[in-house]
Amino acid sequence: MSTSLSLRPNILSRLRGFRVNNFRLYLGILIIFVVVAMAVLASHLTKFDPISQDLLNTLQGGTAEHFLGTDNLGRDVWSRLLYGGRTDLFLASIAVLAPFVIGTVVGAICGYFSGWVDTLVMRIADVVVAFPFYVLVISLVFILGNGVGSIFIAISLVSWVAYARIVRAETMIVRSKEFIEAAQTGGISNQKIITRHVLPNVITQAIVYAMSDIVLNIGVIVTLSYFGLGIVPPTPDWGRMIAEGQQFLAGGYYALTILPALAVVITSLGLSFIGDGLAVALRVKR
């Protein structure tokens, strides 16, 4: 009974953070809500197929029919922006799940038990972080080949380390608390202590980091597609749009590059605001 009561002030203090003035959190939620809604409702916001070519109407400026114009293959730019956002956001979000789960579980186990398992896992983590994130992911995708599956595997193999380190550090702090000692003395199994009492008190930091991780994933996906290593054409993608539009900058067709780049920036800002807002709302005072 005392163990469960000891958790309540901690949880309530976190919930109060959502009721205070948290402009960045709400602004980020608004931005991402609009971006996600546009991506999900893409088929209702445009009548054009993002991969349909019209070679008789290439590189058009804004018209009544194509208000953002067309690209070098006559494809509607607005349509490709919407569907490209759907592709990038979906993959960036899904690619967070596996590292989040793996890193959280591994970090909690290492932080709670310590010992040789902790030493071994942390040495593996040190090897992974010794290489720049972008370089390692791009190298893995180059080895595995283009496509969604390769990107997902590459990001998962690298990103779990950050979650494991964050959760491990938080777990080592929580492990020394009195309510954990009381649970151990009361004969509660280690599995139940970790799942019921440790994870609820350490997972918030991993959730906050996940927002930044999605931003990082978007950057990776866009970068890979820009260099021809990411999403396989003709699937629309912001990185591919930037790469294809760049060759027409000299001709004054700036929108082909600026618009997808602006979409990446706005989406990243929204996710960053959510991460900052969550960090404030969920901050735990020790």
Summarize the structure.
By secondary structure, this protein is mainly alpha-helical. The protein contains 11 helices and no strands.
Name the descriptors.
286 residues, mainly alpha, MetI-like fold, 11 helices, disordered N terminus
Number of domains as seen in the coordinates = 1
Radius of gyration over all CA atoms, rounded: 23 Å
Terminal Cα span: 22 Å
Largest sheet: none
| CATH structural fold name | MetI-like fold
Q: Spell the H/E element sequence.
A: HHHHHHHHHHH
Tell me what portion of residues adopts beta-strand conformation: under 5%
- Which descriptor suits the 3D outline? elongated
The CATH architecture designation is Orthogonal Bundle
Approximate helicity band: over 70%
Low-confidence segments, ≥5 residues, pLDDT <50? 1-9
Overall pLDDT metric:
86
CATH class: Mainly Alpha
Structural class: mainly alpha
CATH superfamily name?
A: MetI-like
Work out the helix count. Answer: 11
What is the total tally of β strands? Answer: 0
